[in-house]
Design a protein that fits this description.
This protein is α/β, with parallel strands linked by helices. The longest helix is centred in the middle third of the chain and has 14 residues. A hairpin with a 6-residue loop joins strand 1 and strand 2. 33% of the residues lie in helices and 22% in strands.
């Protein structure tokens, strides 16, 4: 557990992570010198700063007006970045085909199935033809939750509804049981932290299901994998805690 990699967000939706997104090269690489990049849920702007250093123009968003005001003040002397309010899926003010690349980092796991579908539609609308959308989110293979049979639970749900990306509605209970089974001080500390900083539901995403959604809504999936996420507020980390996806809107 490394608290230096994250800090709780003020709007009770998780954490701002301090490490660079592992797929950032795809996001920055989609910059076409004409259409800006979009950073959804920019947090502490660690990814946006990387894009600025590469010469891109960045629109960075957060889901609380106060957070946006704070970021505007913090970056008032910084060129080529602007801050905006955005809350997926239905509070998005940008026009069609505005962005050459979109980074949606650690956002989708806070949404249930209908909002994920609507959000992917919005991402398709926002990105220009030929542009890319980069996604990272928590996955069902998270090692910290295997003692409570998370993978089995998700597989049983898929048998009933193969296309449904259903969130765990009793996330607090699941987390408490996992912490009890782990039986360590750090597990209990993180359980209490999650109760105070996160909503009572969490969507542990299945990578193949997410790719299916993107494909059916018109994207071409170019990268689909899982990987480690040492910044996640877990008491034990594995090699497949995070789902990673890069999708391209056909030109």
């Amino acid at each position: 557990m490394d608290d230096k990699l994250r800090k709780p967000l003020s709007h009770n939706r998780g954490f701002a992570f301090q490490n660079v997104n592992p797929l950032i090269k795809y996001w920055i690489g989609s910059w076409d010198n004409a259409h800006p990049l979009l950073d959804i849920g920019c947090g502490s702007c660690v990814n946006a700063r990387q894009a600025l250093e590469a010469g891109a123009t960045v629109y960075a968003t957060e889901m609380e007006e106060e957070s946006v005001k704070t970021l505007i003040e913090d970056y008032k002397d910084c060129q080529n970045i602007s801050f905006h309010y955005l809350r997926l899926p239905d509070q998005v003010s940008f026009q069609d085909n505005t962005f050459s690349g979109i980074l949606c980092s650690e956002v989708l796991h806070f949404l249930n199935h209908p909002d994920i579908i609507s959000s992917v539609w919005e991402l398709y609308r926002l990105v220009r033809p030929g542009g890319k959308v980069v996604i990272t989110c928590g996955g069902e293979d998270a090692l910290a939750y295997q003692k409570v049979d998370l993978k089995k639970l998700k597989e049983e749900e898929r048998q009933k509804s193969p296309l449904c990306l259903k969130a765990v509605q009793n996330f607090y209970d699941l987390c408490k049981t996992a912490a009890e089974l782990e039986g360590t001080e750090s597990a209990w500390k993180l359980y209490e932290q999650q109760k105070s900083t996160m909503k009572p539901y969490f969507n542990f995403i299945n990578a193949d299901q997410l790719a299916m959604v993107f494909t059916r809504l018109g994207f071409e999936v170019e990268v689909l994998t899982t990987g480690p996420a040492p910044q996640y507020p877990f008491w034990v980390h594995g090699d497949h805690d995070q789902v990673r996806l890069v999708a391209r809107k056909p030109a």
